[in-house]
Amino acid sequence: MNSRIKNFMDHKGLSSSELADTIGVQRSNVTHVLHGRNKPSFQFISKLLETYPEINAKWLIMGNGTMLEDGSKDQVQPILFEQQQELQAPVEKERIKPLDISAPTVEEKPVNPLAEAVRETSSEKQVERIVVFYTDQTFREYGPSK
């Protein structure tokens, strides 16, 4: 199979690195396959056939037939919905009237989240201690004054 891959590369004028880049495999993978160190994996073969659909899969795998598929498979299939434009009725364009929407006015009062948090916690909870950690791996502990 490696000789057939070489034949295809020669036909396309590709180097091993160009082939590796186009089919999305590592360059060393192509080199090992071409020199007979490794057999091409299923993933390698499927990527090669997906990237180059003109390759005859029977030729690549078993050596039967010609290298390239005949042109009958490459013919353009007719579009299923060719007549779709003819079936659609013309769309009438209407002007859209702008809506007169105004945003509701909201009273903005300054909010101090720190003051509210202190107010909420001060009535329910008491501070036991505050610990400050410094970057030099030391700390300082503060407690309520008595």
TrEMBL record:
GO terms for molecular function: DNA binding. Residues 5-60 form the HTH cro/C1-type domain. InterPro entries: Cro/C1-type_HTH (IPR001387), Lambda_DNA-bd_dom_sf (IPR010982). SMART domains: HTH_XRE. CDD domains: HTH_XRE (cd00093). This is Helix-turn-helix protein.
